[in-house]
Amino acid sequence: MKLQNIIVWICKKFNREQIQEIIDKLLDVLNDKYSAVKPRDDFREKHPHYRDFKVDPLAPLESVEFIKPQKQLDYKILMTDYLKKHGKSLEPVKRRQNSPPVPSQIECPHCGAPQDFNQST
Question: In three state form, how does the secondary structure of the chain look?
């Protein structure tokens, strides 16, 4: 039944004061003043689990820990092996002009390569 038909039916069956009372009662229902009467929630019926989620009791990470590889590598040996295998030395990473510099105290956690490694180091 169309909404317009319902409105016409209400206007034919009720007088002005009764229609005003109907409107007041419907507003009370919309404002949750009647706990027994709730308007139908189509969205909730179509999507019953929308925004139903649970928060983990503890944060997944409390500190950053690096898991070291089982076999500790040495960057000098790796560079020597690369030179033997490819016939040329491995060049350091070329950073872009606008990228922030890597701090000098940083080294590779896997092989111990310093921030500015080169073949002679």
Answer: CCHHHHHHHHHHHCCHHHHHHHHHHHHHHHCCCCCCCCCCCHHHHHCCCCCCCCCCCCCCCCCCCCCCCCCCCCHHHHHHHHHHHHCCCCCCCCCCCCCCCCCCCCECCCCCCECCCCCCC
